[in-house]
Amino acid sequence: MKAVEIRKDIYWVGAIDWSMRSFHGYETSRGSSYNAYLILDEKITLIDTVKEPFKEELLERVASVIDPSKIDYIISNHVEPDHSGALPFMMAHCPNAKVITSIPQGLKGLKARYGDLPYEGVKAGDTLSIGKRTLQFVPTPMLHWPDSMVTYCPEEKILFSNDAFGQHLASGSRFDDENDLSVLYYEAKKYYANILTLYGRQAQAALKALKGLDIEMIATGHGIIWRSHVQEIHDLYEKWSTGTLEKRAVVVFDTMWHSTEQMARTITEAFQEKGVPATFYDIKENALSDIMTDILTSEYLAVGSPTINNQMLPTVASFLCYLKGLTAKGHKAFAFGSYGWGGQSIALVEDELKAADCDIVLDKQRLLNTPDKDTLEALREAVHTIVE
Ligand SMILES: Cc1cc2nc3c(=O)[nH]c(=O)nc-3n(C[C@H](O)[C@H](O)[C@H](O)COP(=O)(O)O)c2cc1C
């Protein structure tokens, strides 16, 4: 396996994970990549490593360019094992290397995972001269762990952005302009929605910190490298991190005997009738990570569950737990569902929507047993009233 030169003397030496379909529960239908970069200068520098099972692939790609024992620095932008997992292995092959990490959190995290290594801590504004080139370190705390940082090389105008601007995507081509852009934007949005939504404020702070930098290339930690669409991905991060919403609706539900499903169909149609594109998600048939991607930029959210044993369905509870963790601040939401007698699920769903920071714009829509034509018409009209 060979390194890919992305600029003179700068190589992609990462690994492609074609077959992974779940990344801690996030459905990765297009696999992923763990990107590491090698800079040949007076001091030979490796930026990030890969997930542990791919360590041989990393070593082989590095060895296709230089003798790995010549590496002087390994920059660890992020402690999470998909980027640092191969660090002990690489250190065993790089006896002279120092590990550069953020302080205090990077140092703490790496020590806890890998014990004592020759660490050197860096903080905001610190730089490292590696010969003709300089590396500047920019902390991006909680984007998406406390230790996270990015590394900027001003001479090359390259930002080594780790998880920021990344996508879970396996591709044989390394650059944005060699891939289908619509897929890249979808996967970048999916990544933001499922990993970064909770940290919009921190994403804003990171964008501010990067503002003064002249960036020609964003060498991400996952997926492709941005070189032709740097401004576009920056603008999308601006949009997502400020919570800018589109006039769209997401209808999410589960059902036992299809009554709540009938309600979901009527709600979806009602939005459409008012000119609001709406998507209908049966939770059983869709990955939560895809539903979250749609929610990220949709103004309206309707969530439905029938009542079972005085509760909502566990699938709906699971979805709402995920939504609450990521948050859905400012989305216009309501709860709906069918019931047989007590009908407690609908209020429970509404409580969870409030806990996820949604604005409740329509009172709970509860229908007894199988809804008839008139009750569904009333539901349709109720939905019409909330569309501005
Ligand atoms: C196992 C089971 C438990 C149920 N428990 C309750 C309950 O605690 N309270 C209630 O109001 N209805 C309860 N129901 C009735 C359903 O909520 C009702 O049939 C509803 O119309 C089902 O909606 P669905 O067709 O969307 O599944 C229960 C139904 C089943 C099958």
TrEMBL record:
Its EC number is 1.-.-.-. The keyword Oxidoreductase applies. GO terms for molecular function: electron transfer activity; FMN binding; metal ion binding; oxidoreductase activity, acting on NAD(P)H. It holds the Pfam family ODP. CDD domains: flavodiiron_proteins_MBL-fold (cd07709). Residues 249-387 form the Flavodoxin-like domain. Keywords: Oxidoreductase. The keyword Oxidoreductase applies. In the N-terminal section; belongs to the zinc metallo-hydrolase group 3 family. This is Nitric oxide reductase. It comes from Mitsuokella jalaludinii.
